[in-house]
Amino acid sequence: MSEMEIEMTDDISGELSQMKESILISVVESNGFFRSQQVGEPDLTLAEKRDIASKLLDQNVPLFLERYWKYIKLKDVGYFESFKSYEVDFYLSEIRKFRDDRLNSIQIKNRRYGALKKMIQEGSYFSDAEMKKRNPYLYHQMIFQHLTENERIAAYKEQHKDEKFSSFLLGQMERNVENTLFEEQKNENEAIKEEEDDDDEESSEESELEDEEKSKFVSASEKVRLREEFTNLMYEKFLSGKDSQFDYGSVDQNAEYDPPEKYYDDEEKYFSNES
Q1: Which residues are in the CCD97-like C-terminal domain (predicted)?
Q2: Residue 147 in contact with residue 196, Cβ under 8 Å?
């Protein structure tokens, strides 16, 4: 064997050793099954878990994969390539699908979060006017109904300050759509309340009257809290993909919103431990 071949063999052997070590670390830190224990028996130590996992990996690769495939990272799959069998090939395929789906899901969440931060900074998509268009009923319940007359006038002027006379008709059409959406959301909300309400009609009416009275006397700090809650709900709706008119493809498939690569390594490790 030539020196070059010896070096290549050593390199491959070194890579396999690194992958094996990474595999064992991932498995030992997981919530996987190691052995049956009696009630009251102390939990296995990390050293005991490693000893069990290491022996199984050396003696029975298919069984090792059956137990721990969800905890193995994509970069370590190469360790098993030489163990050819139907069972091994099956679990390697499962690892690739599981990791690809997981990383795609993480990637989409991170890109949406990156887009959210950018849009908050720009102050357009998450302005009061735009959020009110998307969820007029929730805006009314949590913010508008608690404003004083002067605050309502100021809010209206702020929301329409850039509206030119030439766009008045378009603005009116948008307001008609908003009013229709308000009624739809109101009806949906009332239908949900009716389903959840197990009390009699009298107590329900009393509760409504109490809510009306409370809405007249909302403190400044409570207004701030309600505004923050409303805004957070709108953020969560965007992140979960429920803004029906938003083009999520422009974000989900856009690498511009990716965080640093190291972030994905940390995320993968976290989800491996959670699996």
Answers
A1: 110-274
A2: no
